[in-house]
């Protein structure tokens, strides 16, 4: 299986950076998803194999449906333990930045990251990386950062020595970032990787259930409410959007992760090209935006132009600093501006 992604110089530098380090940090983006948590846990397991003192730091809370993953009890949240995390950034020899392309994606942790004197390595699959790093492994065509983590570990010759504690989170991250392997996952190498992960006796069906069949009754009712009451379908544009206010979230006892995947559901409408989710922050005057599309419609360009964001061709995100009504108006303008591509 030819899945190597590092050239000779990158491979040597990666190995040297790891060998020279004692204290290692693995960090990911704000509001971590399955790929961010999965790649961080998987890479940390590889660092333990290399004999390193490793800590996974996340900027803030991650969804409940990921808390079953092995070694989540060892994750340190920056928003809960800022003083401890700042000290770790100061004493670290090496920091791995996983699943984000710019320091702003780690929110309040950004200053500690950028000012750290540790060597840094970026492993990511988003466009236009600008994290200051000694080694950048950027593969936007990859399905996920977890895929990259597997490929590097495989190329380093370490996969045979790792077990479920590596394979489970890596598989989980690949699964969630491809919507259960329903998008961005047509390359045969992805399924070759899955085959190798299965040799570690992971239960892929249980992993799926733990993620997608692990919601509260409130979340199910929220999903029905969104699809029946809040969905705005614009057939002339082959687009749809919905909005959720903080009061509506409160009504359904919202917890982090409850809206995960909802933006994908309108794509079941025949001929739909674009789905947009607008979710009011529960505390700040910010509306979080998620965009999903099919085929060649450029979600990332729309996110950059209208929503202060970016991402992948068919899956992107951003935000509007303002009210939900303002976000709705911007969404309408965005859809109208891309009329030709949508029609």
What's the domain count? Answer: 2
Strand content: 15-25%
Number of helices: 13
Average pLDDT, all residues: 96
CATH class descriptor name of the largest domain: Alpha Beta
- What kind of sheet is the major sheet? 6 strands, parallel
Shape: globular
Distance between the termini: 41 Å
Q: Element order, helices and strands?
A: HEHEEHEHEEHHHHHEEHEEHEEHH
InterPro entries: DDH_dom, DHH_sf, DHHA1_dom, Oligoribo/pAp-PDE_c-di-AMP_PDE
Domain DDH: 24-174
Domain DHHA1: 252-335
GO molecular function: nucleic acid binding
Characterization of the model:
The chain has 343 residues and is α/β, with parallel strands linked by helices. It has two domains: 205 residues, inorganic pyrophosphatase (n-terminal core) (Alpha-Beta Complex), CATH 3.90.1640.10; 126 residues, Diaminopimelate Epimerase, Chain A, domain 1 (Roll), CATH 3.10.310. It has 13 helices and twelve strands. It has a six-stranded parallel sheet, sandwiched between helices. It is globular and about 55 Å long.
Task: Record the SSE blueprint.
Elements: H1 8-20, E1 23-27, H2 34-49, E2 53-58, E3 76-77, H3 82-91, E4 94-98, H4 110-115, E5 119-124, E6 135-138, H5 145-155, H6 164-177, H7 188-198, H8 204-212, H9 217-230, E7 232-234, E8 239-244, H10 246-251, E9 274-280, E10 287-293, H11 299-306, E11 310-311, E12 315-320, H12 324-337, H13 339-342
Parallel strand pairs: 1-2, 1-4, 2-3, 4-5, 5-6, 8-9
Antiparallel strand pairs: 7-8, 9-10, 10-12, 11-12
